[in-house]
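Predict the 3D structure for this chain.
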Amino acid sequence: MRPRASILLLTLLLAACGSEKTAPESTAKTEHAVKPTVTVPPAPQFYEGTPYWLTRSAHWPAVMEWTLGPEGEYVFDSLTLRLSGKVLQSFISGPKGKEHPLMCWFDLSVRPIPRKLIGYSFNIDSVVFHDPIKKRRLRSLPMLSSERHTEMGVVRTTFSNNLAVLYTPDLEEDQPLEPTVYITSVEKKTIKVTMAPITCTFLRQIKPEETPTDSLQWGPS
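Done. Predicted structure below.
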């Protein structure tokens, strides 16, 4: 019994010594553990007040037709509007591989927009493309807002067409399409915007998208 007791005592001593050696290491690992970095963006600053165009908007005609300049901008009653777009036709295989839907995105930047009007002052309702090759008007595409950025009266909203209903027109790769954008503004006014032609590319693979920064470079009002 004595040898067994000696072995048991030696085992307990070794275990105790081992625990004393490993304890500081575990503590050191905890102290030097890499903590996650959390970046909190600054709160956006808003434009407070009543811009001149807002006092004039009640007297705007029910339908206005605007043609954008070479930089994609239009100025009316102190309101500055910028519009840019992209149009693709998808050829990516999938559950609906036989469908080749037309997809488009438009970035609408408007200034100055006061805080109380952010979100519903100017919205793209639909886009109609004209095919100059086949000389035809394509189906109207209803649009939905998907992303919005706000800073000091500059509001940029990204709109994309509603893919709940797929539309597959017969187009040629890299051909031009002439967009007409229908925007609803305050006072329920309709703005019909004519833009320069946009090249329609065929999408065969998905690549990461870069975040547009046009309104950030545009600067506050």
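The first strand starts at residue 63 and ends at 67.
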